[in-house]
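User: tokens in, sequence out, please.
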């Protein structure tokens, strides 16, 4: 269900009107977490250090065009990681069922389409389309 929501993206903004966060109803917002997991978190920490004058190691971070390119690359890599995660889940789900033989489980119809139905199999947390 979270795929229906608007995906978060990184961007370089110079206008206060762009700083809001709709979901949190906050007039000003920045992504700020511990910089041990993701490169985007490291960049935010570096930007803050540059902004308060405690670090001059990364002068390119003050270049709006270079920062915009960096954001574009971060967004692309995040999207590719999501695709890889979905593909991995699909692959391992297939491996799980490969040697099980025929499986019969209760399913719920979520949508009826002209040429298919979308079903949910709660036992396995699977949702899929059955074409006919």
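Assistant: Sequence out:
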């Amino acid at each position: 269900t979270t795929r229906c929501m608007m995906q978060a993206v990184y961007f370089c903004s110079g206008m206060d009107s762009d700083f809001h966060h709709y979901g949190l109803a906050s007039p000003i917002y920045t992504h700020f977490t511990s910089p041990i997991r993701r490169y985007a978190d490291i960049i935010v920490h570096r930007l803050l250090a540059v902004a308060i004058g405690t670090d001059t190691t990364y002068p390119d971070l003050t270049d709006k065009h270079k920062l915009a390119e960096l954001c574009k690359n971060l967004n692309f890599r995040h999207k590719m990681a999501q695709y890889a995660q979905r593909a991995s889940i699909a692959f391992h789900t297939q491996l799980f069922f490969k040697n099980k033989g025929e499986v019969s489980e209760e399913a719920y119809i979520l949508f009826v389409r002209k040429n298919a139905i979308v079903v949910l199999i709660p036992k396995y947390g699977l949702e899929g389309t059955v074409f006919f």
